[in-house]
């Protein structure tokens, strides 16, 4: 796995063999090993119940690991209570104190640290300036919009210059447009202030937009830790392929292996070239994964090494592109994503089309 | 469409408003119809009786009804020397007539409040009253020399006006002296200031104990998983299913000298002889706290249930010690629950009567006891109403002060 681009920076946080169980029967987190470098933006991504929030809570100190250790630099964190960890945290519903004004909320972490009043006031003013909410300083959180509350929560988590910022699905309550705007704002804050951020989300788009690296969780195990582009282009297993972005799958068998590439048989008697995923060899069952935008139609498919005929079910118009749902041997719900300009308007549902793709656009992954 | 909504077309706009009113009228009528029975019920059984009760506290009683002419002529008298002959004549005739109408008893009772010998004087006078007389003044003084003293007539005069402040004054240990000045009553007959003070102290103490016991309990209920907290909630509500008298009697049995509490304490070797736990202030606190605790727990619980645990986590993540987080972030958010619970318990405790009467000693009786005493035993409705009115006024005043304080603290943005 290409983990080498972070070697230059010092590791700030290290999970070593961390386990967590709540009931003593099943492990919510199984043998977690993860290193986070200083200045890095790492996202823990996964469906609900995958263990990502538990990891964040163990890092924040609200949960204790059942086994293994968490290190901050050289210091073992397991027994450090949460209020002594000096991590900023942004909660899912902001958790702004409703009985305090915006200013009092932001000053709270400075007060707990015993900062002199005038210095605290200066810092609060600075950060209010940064999040452009100076004129709202005397309002209470209940009088702010969702996006403004989000900014205040950020300011409160940043004002004491923590060595690590934890965010637990902080954008979940915002509408789509505001969410995308806040994603960029947080990303820019990360860049300009050089923050180290651990971000938890179940939204893969959010993870890809903001992160340096993404750890994909499922079933208490990190399935893959990688840069967003590697996750998308080189998923390590079929769960990651399915979870990140859109994906077509075809179940088959690896026929022959040639270095990184292989040939796989699927459907009745069809074959395709593919990039071989980790841990697979000739004769093994595989799940082939193809992104919809890599599937070409009719004219565009001419000259591609893998071609087959399929029957069109329906067209879904999405403005800049069309989704063509079609049936082919082994998958009744195969989607091709076609730019509107490239589309032949004479096509109707029920017509036959030719689909094609390159060998390198197919991943042969585990069959689970 | 556009022209109806155009602000430049006032005629059309007026039309729209009229249509809105018409559309809303039916809904309003329905709302009024739904509330009307209850409103009527409240007016008849609550507002009117309380209003008339409050009037009783300043009502001067029956002299005006039984002896209207006497009362009228005495009100014009300046109080110097003796009243005019006409007053004597009116009084003598109305005194004679009062025997037939049965008003004599109530006049006698009212005048007895002024001087305890008055009823006897009236009876004596009535017995010796002749049918006719040319000079009623001489006749009356002849029957009893008291009629020749100005003070006798001034006492009747005091009962003549339709309204009096004597009951209200007496409720706070004040009276009007011979010259009409307000003064404190003799030290050995002062009673009610101490009773009011005691009532406030007991109600306040019960409220504080309930808060101290109820807050942790409500917190536990609000943070436990739903199954466990529902079970515990049933236990909190269990006392409501038993009659108040039964519970109070149970406390007497538990706390008496050879009761379970004392026997346990002695068996454990904690005390050597039985403690006096009932028929004193301790018993009153035990029983009242037990009865009123649910009224503290319920509002606290409902407010705490709505406070997300993430607030405390946020405070801790920002560097606050868990105790500081609880005190600075959690407790202020429970203010509305604390306010509702304390005011509910305090006001209910102020009016307690049965429980202190049963488990308290003579020095633990609250205002309601005296209200009941005047209503049931001495038939002095004026004093009963005056004590009740003062209690009501004190309660309202405290409530206003409290409301101010709490509102200032609890300006949580909507």
User: What is the fourth-level CATH superfamily of the largest domain in chain B?
Assistant: MetI-like
Estimate the strand proportion of chain A: 35-45%
By CATH, the superfamily of the largest domain in chain A comes out as: P-loop containing nucleotide triphosphate hydrolases
Give me the strand/helix succession of chain B.
HHHHHHHHHHEEHHHHHHHHHHH
Describe this structure in words.
The complex is a heterodimer of chains A (about 375) and B (about 425). Chain A is an alpha+beta fold and about 375 residues long. Chain A folds into 2 domains: about 5-240, Rossmann fold, CATH 3.40.50; about 245-365, RNA polymerase II/Efflux pump adaptor protein, barrel-sandwich hybrid domain (OB fold (Dihydrolipoamide Acetyltransferase, E2P), Beta Barrel). Chain A is built from 9 helices and 20 strands. In chain A, helix 5 links the parallel strand 7 (about 165-170) and strand 8 (about 195-200). The longest helix of chain A has 18 residues, at about 175-195. Chain B folds into 3 domains: about 10-55; about 65-160, no CATH class; about 195-410, MetI-like (MetI-like fold), CATH 1.10.3720. Chain B has a two-stranded antiparallel ribbon with strand order 1-2. In chain B, helix 6 crosses helix 7 (about 120-130), helix 13 (about 245-255) crosses helix 15 (about 280-305) and helix 16 crosses helix 17. The interface between A and B is medium-sized, with 32 and 25 residues. Chain A: Belongs to the ABC transporter superfamily. Spermidine/putrescine importer (TC 3.A.1.11.1) family.
